[in-house]
Every structure is written in structure tokens, then in C-alpha cells.
Amino acid sequence: MLRGPVAEINLSALLHNFQTIKNNVPNRQIVPVVKADAYGHGSIEISHLLQKQGVEYLAVAFTGEARILRESGINCQIIVLFDKDAGECIELNLIPVIHSVEAAHEFSKEAKKRNTYLNVHIKIDTGMGRLGLTGEHILDELLTISKMPGIHITGILSHFSEADLKDRTFALNQLNKFISIRDSLSASLDKYIFSYIANSAAVMSFPEAYLDAVRPGIMLYGYSPLSYQISPDDRNFYDKLIPVMTVKTNILSLRNVPEGTPISYGRTFITKRKSKIGVIPLGYADGFSRLFSNNAEVLVRGKRVPVVGRVCMDMTMIDVTEVEDVKEEDEVVIIGSQGKEKITAYELATRANTITYEILTSLGSRARRIYV
Ligand SMILES: *Cc1c(COP(=O)(O)O)cnc(C)c1O
User: Fold this and answer.
1) Residue 217 C-alpha to ligand 1 middle, in angstroms?
2) Does pTM top 0.85 for this prediction?
3) Closest Cα to residue 47, out of 26, 28, 75?
4) How far apart are CA 229 and CA 165, in angstroms?
5) Are residues 358 and 275 part of one domain?
6) pLDDT of residue 234
7) Nearest atom in ligand 1 to 33's CA
8) Which residue's alpha carbon is nearest to atom 8 within ligand 1?
9) Between 20 and 30 A from 295 (CA), which of 54, 192, 215, 368?
10) Given ligand 1 and candidates 18, 21, 29, 33, which is best to mutate, with the most ligand atoms within 8 Å of its CB?
11) What is the pLDDT of residue 232?
């Protein structure tokens, strides 16, 4: 047995999710976000698939991620959301997102030095409190940047901090601020300014924010970012998304133990009956959080069974006493379906008090991936 879990990536589910976004956001650019190795799904494979669908842009976090894509033959435009490496952006023909006047200077200097120019997007902080032009002088700063040699502003963007909430007051504030800056810039420069702000949450529930392009991440991978119970009207998208990742492993060892047997570090679980305990080669080193100790279920032979005792670095114990005919090597589903049962990243996220994003990136980035 190869060590650890396998992540099965269902490419037709990904295509389906992409098509669902396209159908619901007509006549706009879709900028799929493939940062963090495509949320743990493998950025090379996912990007090639999307490029074949004709996307004009992809978005990554850092130039290193873009380099991997370029070297694998991705030739569409790549937007780099967070990096400042001007040299890499020029060499790899990337579109950097610039967050400050100082950074813009550096890009300008580097482009001039190389006797070339760069198309850049400028980030406006409208309330995320992370990166971007902020404060009273955003328009002046944009105009300053627009005059710098070697860089051309071809777009502006912003990012929502809570478009996933039902109360959209703050998101609407952010959107209005962004639109007002765009309009002022457009008037000052007397040209159309390509602008985009919508993440998955906005794509799903906030059509006013679609603007020129949308930037979905998590939806592509089959999960809703919305943190409230979806109303029937909003189910449009929600029901249509298909989770792309399945995570599986196999039972490494089966042991019959008497009542009163302590299981794993700290003896946090003690069998209350004669039990059959399965040991699975999956632990926190594989991204299966220690928070799942005595606090998750997995599927074996179509049945939900509990994790018992503490999750170890690369092992976890499960109680399979009630699974008929269970055998070593039996498949164990961590995320995915087996028979009628299904475990989602959302279920795991809820148990660990986190979000699906963290579950997918944790498990997906360490598993051996296979594409189906
Ligand atoms: C990650 C990210 C996105 C995508 O967010 P989702 O919630 O996954 O849709 C969009 N824009 C920026 C700037 C991001 O960092």
C-alpha cells in the first residue's frame, strides 16, 4: 500500500461547476481562482482543463504558482493576486495586482530597466482590511500610478470581506465605494476601466457585483461559501454544484479488542464493549486535523463509523464493530460517497469549526491525486 490517502479529482464535476457559473453569469469574463494548488485539487490539471474551456484569465496568489503553470504550458493571462516580484511578472508575462504606490514604483522601475512595459491591475481596499490602496487619496494615488512609465493600468479590483452573509449592508458599501472610485478614475482618464470584485459568495447571491468579471474559487470546486441557510430562491446555484474532491484510504489493520481497551494517545477513548477497531493510514500530517479526534465519521462498506481516540500524525483509529464482513484493505471514504451515505467537506468543516476551504486545501494538498 502506498502511504496515506488518495484524493480523487472529478474533472467532469469541475467542468459542470464552471458551466453552471457561466450559465448564471452571462457575458462576463470568468477568472477562475486556482491559488493554493487549486484549493488542493492540483493547479496544473485544473488550469489546463479551464484553458481548454476558453478562459482568458486565471488567478493565482504568487508568481511561483504562475511559473509552475507557465512551465506546464498554460498560455492564457495569469493574474497574480498578492506578489510583488516585478522581474518574475515580466519574464513570465503575468498581470500583477499592485497594492500600493511604492510597489507600483518598483514595477515601473523594473519594466523601464528592461525596456518593456507591464499591464497591471490595481487593488483597492474597500473594507477587507488586507491589501490595496486605502484612505482618503485613492483616486490621487491611482492617477499617480497611471502616469508611471512602464506600467499600464488595465483593470482595478477589490475584495469582499463578508459577501457570504445574508445581511449585505457592508458588502453593498464596499461595492458602492468601489464603483465610485472606478467612475472617478474613468472620468479622470477618460477611458473605460475594467473592474471586478465578485468572489464565489457574490457570484451566488449578489448579481449587482458582477461588473466586468467574476473571480470564483470555492464554487468551482463544488462548495457554497454562503454561511447562512439558503432560501429556496437562492438554491439556483447551491443545488447545482458538485463537489470535485473525494478523499479515500484503506484499512491498514483490523484488531478485535475486549471491552475497556484504551485507544490512542491520552486514552481519550475506551471501548465500552468487545470491539473491532480499524487503523487507517491517515493523520494530521495528511491534513486530517487532530480536531477530528473522537469527532468525525468515515464511511466503510456504505456505513458511517466513528473516529475513536486521538488522530495521530499518520494514523487514525475507527470503530468498525458494526460493519458486517469488514476486512483489512477495505476502502475508507473520508470525503465523498459510498452507497447511500455521503460525507462532505462542509460536514468536516463544521465539526472542526472551520470552513470548507481549509478542509479541501489541507487534505487535497497532501494526498496522492488521481484524476477521474
Ligand atoms: C481567494 C480569492 C478569491 C476567491 O474566493 P472564493 O471565496 O473562493 O470564491 C477571489 N478574489 C481574491 C482576491 C481572493 O483572494
Assistant:
1) 6
2) yes
3) 75
4) 10
5) yes
6) 54
7) 4
8) 217
9) 368
10) 33
11) 52
